From TrEMBL:
It is an enzyme of class 2 (transferase). Residues 92-224 form the Glycylpeptide N-tetradecanoyltransferase N-terminal domain. This is glycylpeptide N-tetradecanoyltransferase. Its EC number is 2.3.1.97.
Length: 418
């Protein structure tokens, strides 16, 4: 009987583990599709906006910078019947007073927490810019009744507002033409407390952006600041703001004789800008307001800036903002929104903050709560204070671009002076 060779066992063209890799990729794709569907349903408005969505995988690999160079198109959220966008320079005193009244009624109002600015406090942020700023108003028709005659008087009631003002942005890590550009900072986005969750805010944002781009074709990007939910958008950075009760804090001892703490004013602000120029690459992204605007805010005591000088050189800078926010009557919050530390001595830097804070407190004793945004070099200050004090409030914050896609930055590498 003839012997035949044993047949070779069948070998699959791919190793067995390729099946598992295929299933892993399939699961990943399904997860991405589910996330995409959830965001488009849950955040319908933001899903159709030119922002960096968390499911935009190509932006993670190849961030494009400006997303849409063309003028925006009208869509279901543009509302030109009820929404009016006005350049700041063309705003009447009456509209500014109406805006302030609306903000005081509906913006950052929560129980004992009250935001109480004057018209002058608000308009200071829109003064001294080289480009125009914008205000948008969402009006709703209503009928008022004259008490004496019982006659009906037609009136336009404000139910939503939004503003934008120009800022300068430099991305030091970038290697493309979009490394330096101007943008608009979105502020005072507010809807009547009784009309929220009725699609008013999306209409205000969309209509404002459309009108802004139409009037000023040179600025294509906007910058938002949010608390809490990011609506499926990849942020520029995410950080916490800590608020501390100052009532138990004692006056800090003075700085050592070899350094001095100086408040920035018109006679020495050039030293601050020299300091900016020499150390701006310390941060991956710098977002700055116009010089004239910063000077106006300093003169009006809306912001306070202090520098530490050692041997004739600036080594540290601290930036404080008067918030006009009261946690309760007579208790105003003073916010340190940025700092720059070029000293090798972190204890000196943290102590300099405390001395500067106390100088401001002595000139305005209503400041009894100290807020610190944990961004730029403020982490050194926060860590130092947390060793002995517990915050009374911790709020999450984030910045994100509108019509611009870029990677997220570590908050320590982000400087915002605005």
């Amino acid at each position: 009987m003839q012997n035949y060779p044993e047949p070779y066992p069948y070998q699959h063209p791919f190793p067995y583990y390729y099946h598992y890799i295929f299933y892993v990729f399939l699961v990943i794709i399904l997860i991405i599709l589910v996330i995409c569907a959830y965001i488009k349903i849950r955040f319908r408005f933001w899903a159709m906006q030119p922002v960096f969505h968390i499911y935009d995988l190509h932006y993670y690999l190849f961030p494009c910078g400006i997303i849409n160079y063309e003028l925006p198109e009208k869509n279901q959220y543009t509302n030109f019947k009820d929404i009016e966008t006005i350049q700041y320079s063309k705003l009447s005193d009456l509209k500014l007073k109406q805006f302030t009244h609306f903000i005081k009624q509906h913006y950052l109002q929560n129980g004992d927490n009250q935001y109480c600015p004057t018209t002058k406090n608000i308009t200071g942020y829109f003064t001294g810019h080289n480009c125009t700023s914008f205000f948008s108003f969402y009006y709703e028709d209503e009928l008022l009744i004259d008490v004496k005659t019982q006659a009906q008087i037609p009136n336009k009631k404000i139910v939503g507002v939004m503003t934008t003002r120009p800022i300068h942005i430099t991305i030091n890590k970038a290697k493309n033409a979009d490394a330096t550009f101007d943008a608009y900072y979105v502020d005072y986005l507010c809807v009547d407390k009784t009309r929220r969750k009725q699609n008013i805010a999306p209409q205000v944002i969309q209509s404002h952006h459309y009108n802004q781009r139409l009037i000023n074709k040179n600025i294509l990007v906007s910058l938002f600041k949010r608390e809490g939910d990011l609506t499926g958008i990849v942020p520029i950075c995410v950080y916490n703001t800590y608020c501390f009760d100052m009532n138990r804090w004692a006056k800090p001892p003075p700085l050592l004789p070899y350094v001095s703490l100086i408040e920035v004013g018109k006679t020495n602000i050039h030293h601050l800008f020299d300091f900016f120029r020499d150390h701006n690459e310390k941060f991956d992204i710098c977002i700055l307001t116009e010089t004239a605007n910063m000077m106006h805010l300093i003169n009006s005591k809306t912001i306070y800036i202090y520098m530490i000088i050692e041997q004739g050189e600036v080594i540290c800078a601290y930036f404080f903002r008067r918030s006009y926010t009261y946690l309760k009557k007579g208790t105003e919050v003073l916010c340190c929104f940025a700092s720059i530390n070029c000293s090798k001595n972190s204890q000196l830097f943290a102590h300099g903050y405390k001395v500067a804070l106390w100088k401001i407190y002595e000139s305005h004793t209503a400041f009894k709560c100290a807020a610190i945004e944990n961004i730029s070099d403020n982490d050194v200050i926060v860590d130092n204070i947390l060793e002995r004090s517990r915050p009374i409030i911790v709020n999450p914050n984030a910045y994100f671009f509108y019509n611009f896609a870029y990677h997220t930055f570590h908050p320590k590498k982000v400087l915002v002076i605005n």
